[in-house]
Amino acid sequence: MSRILLVGATGFVGRHVRARAAATGVEIVAASRSPEPGVLGLDLAAGAARVGDALRDIAPDVVVNCAGVTAGSPADLVRGNVVAVANLVTALAAAERPVRLVHLGSAAEYGEVEHGTPVTESTRPRPHSLYGVTKLAGTELVGGAPGAVVLRVFNPVGPGSPGSTLAGRLAGELRRTDGTDEDVHVGPLTASRDLVDVRDVADAVLTAALAPGALPPVLNVGSGRATPLRDLAALLLRVTGSRRRVLEAAATGSERSSGVAWQQADIRAIGHVLGWAPATDLATSLRDLWAETACPG
User: Fold this and answer.
1) Most buried pick, 23, 31, 90, 182, via CB within 10 A?
2) Is residue 127 exposed (0-12), middle (13-18) or buried (19+ Cβ within 10 Å)?
3) Domain NAD-dependent epimerase/dehydratase, which positions (predicted)?
4) What DSSP character marks residue 146?
5) CA dist 174 to 233, 243, 252, Å?
6) Which CATH superfamily includes the segment(s) 3-293?
7) Which of 158, 197, 128, 191 is nearest to 291 (CA)?
8) H/E element holding 110?
9) What distance lies between CA 17 and its chain's CA centroid?
10) Where are the domains of the chain?
11) Active site residues
């Protein structure tokens, strides 16, 4: 059985990878720069030597890197998405035996794309934000590591969605105002995004980690559908039974995605290579997200 070192195990996607692995009997060593009981403290940005020590101690067959920084200063983004990845790649290159690397990239690396045309792995990346620029730099670093694959994850949604995401913020606001007539105010909902259930993402990660043989350098992970964000908001209101209104402000949206009007992943490659396909519809993702907000923690 393969041993997987899961870095970023306490984050949104990492928690679901860990849970999915436990349910299927896959051996996971969980690590994070924010450790908790049962999770090893490991900050990839602390230096290649520290990462190398961890690799020698754990002796994994696969490293899954779910760690990263989504917001903060330019220095924070560079440290978490570039320096950390450089240290990991350096340590893996010096390892005594080959170790597969599965690294989570982001749809933000693609940036603005042609409306109506699904994004393939060969689409030229044109990141629109500093976050996307730093994630693309991480992908470029991973591209030089033998046996590595970058999973470009589009917009994960589902239980545990953080408040930095539209679904997470809306669910939190609706739960906070449950039983009231208070309106919920958000930024513009004019864009369309590829929304994929986080548990399906976790399944894709584990499938890539355990796959025999070499993999392509980049694989998209998405639903293969572009969902208008207004439809996301309306669907969340329906699954919650809320009669409150979601009001759009004229302010700009998230820095990570502002300026990108439409995205939809072409997921044929990952289906062909790994036999993976998304299995969870958006209504289920939002229903499970809502149920989890009733009992946080």
Assistant:
1) 31
2) buried
3) 4-222
4) T
5) 11, 10, 21
6) NAD(P)-binding Rossmann-like Domain (3.40.50.720)
7) 158
8) none
9) 11
10) 3-293
11) 131
Tell me if 98 sits within 8 A of 147, measured CB to CB: yes
For the record, the structure tokens of 67 come out as: 């760690």
Report long-range pairs for 181-186 (Cβ below 8 Å, ≥24 apart).
Answer: 181/243, 181/244, 182/244, 183/244, 183/245, 183/246, 183/247, 184/244, 184/245, 184/246, 184/247, 185/246, 185/247, 185/249, 186/233, 186/246, 186/247, 186/248, 186/249
How far is the C-alpha of 216 from the C-alpha of 88, rounded, in Å? 19
Contact (Cβ atoms closer than 8 angstroms) between residue 138 and residue 103: yes
State residue 1's pLDDT score. 66
The first and second tokens of residue 11, run together, are 């984050």
User: Rounded to an integer, what is the distance from CA 140 to the centroid of its chain?
Assistant: 17
Quote the crossing angle between the two packed helices 282-293 and 166-176, to the nearest 10°: 40
Tens place of pLDDT for every residue, the chain, 297 residues?
Answer: 689 999 999 999 999 999 999 999 999 999 999 888 999 999 999 999 999 999 999 999 999 999 999 999 999 999 999 999 999 999 999 999 999 999 999 999 999 999 999 999 999 999 999 999 999 999 999 997 888 999 999 999 999 999 999 999 999 989 886 666 788 888 899 999 999 999 999 999 999 999 999 999 999 999 999 999 999 999 999 999 988 889 898 755 555 555 799 999 999 999 999 999 999 999 999 999 999 988 655
Q: Which amino acid is at 73?
A: S
Distance CA 172, CA 294 (A): 10
Residue type, 28: I
Residue type, 140: E
Q: Which residues pair with 220 in a beta bridge?
A: 152
Alpha helix locations (H) across 190-228?
Answer: 198-210
Cα–Cα distance between 108 and 127 in angstroms, integer? 6
